[in-house]
Design a protein that fits this description.
By secondary structure, the protein is mostly helical. It is 68% helix and 0% strand. The N terminus is likely disordered.
């Protein structure tokens, strides 16, 4: 799986006629293949969202634990370990490690923001 191939299914209205997106008339067999693949993509996207929600539930608990023990919201050592681990996983999965790192950095930034907010709430209650 590579990140250079993107699916524009959200821009496709699903018609078989000319719809202004350059697809023109599509052979019914090709349309069936596209629909099948896009259904798989939609299912994977849903799974990714649910997995991220579960991940954030866990990181929220970490944030509360850190706040309760006056630990800093960010843990650069842990973050570096996670980035290295995710890069290895990406390589093994034939996914661009740089993309995986960018994704994890985005997630980490959001987690730190949550942890800071949790810490501020804990400090205001003291």
């Amino acid at each position: 799986m590579t990140t250079s191939n993107t699916d524009n299914s959200s821009h496709d209205n699903g018609s078989n006629g000319s719809n202004g997106n350059g697809t023109g008339d599509i052979d019914p067999a090709v349309r069936a293949d596209l629909d099948r693949l896009r259904e798989s993509i939609d299912n994977i996207d849903a799974a990714v969202v649910h997995m991220l929600a579960e991940r954030f539930k866990c990181t929220q608990q970490v944030g509360h634990l850190k706040a309760a023990h006056q630990l800093p919201p960010a843990d650069p050592s842990r973050e570096a370990q996670q980035i290295a681990r995710l890069r290895r996983l990406a390589e093994n999965a034939n996914l661009d490690p740089a993309f995986a790192e960018k994704l994890l950095n985005f997630i980490i930034a959001e987690v730190i923001r949550h942890h800071e907010r949790i810490a501020e709430g804990a400090n205001s209650r003291e």
